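Field guide to reading this record: the first block holds the primary sequence, the second block holds the structure written as discrete tokens, and the final block holds curator observations. Each block starts with its own label. This record concerns adenine phosphoribosyltransferase, catalogued under organism Onychorhynchus coronatus.

BLOCK 1 — SEQUENCE
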Amino acid sequence: LHAQCSQSLQSPHMDLCHIPAAREKGWYLALMAPNVKGPNYAWLDPSRLYCHPQGLQDCVADLLQPFQGDPIDMVAGIDAMGFILGAATAAVLQKGFLAIRKAGHLCVQTVAQPYTDYSGREKVMEVRTDAISPGLRILLVDQWVETGGTMRAAIELVERLGGPLRVPAGVAAICIEDSEGGRWIRERYKCSHCVPPCLQSRFDHHQ
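BLOCK 2 — STRUCTURE
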């Protein structure tokens, strides 16, 4: 897998219909595309993974594996790329999907939470107030957890609406980096991600 990822990440083109004979966990990480536009963009673009039907299915299956048998009432995805994995996960679980949005997009009553994203920019996210009842078990899904600021803000939103009970059923993302924020989330919540241990340090250092 290590060699496959290294080779595929350097290739500008990829057969999006090819399925490897041995589909070990994380094989689809090689479908992701590297940043070619410079430091103002994320270091890696996972969206090509979503174009591959088997890759997307296996990614969602791997994210859900640790939660087999756990009570999950709803899936929440974080604006914007978390909507893709979140909605796909909700469909597999046959649960509803809640969009946690950047401020200013929801025309209903909301609760807001400021946060600092992975690039250091100050932002605000919102969630509607009529979808989360006390004790509801929500699986939070995003594409990536780098510094952890965005996911932590989403956790705080659902916990504020859910009352004293710990609402999140867990946190799922393609990668949860070994950053201070990532460790904070891992220490407090059940987490799932797709990066094999042999590749984790490369993802942590954006290699």
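BLOCK 3 — OBSERVATIONS
The two ends are 15 Å apart (CA to CA).
Helices lie at 2-9, 47-50, 53-64, 82-93, 149-162, 180-188, 197-204.
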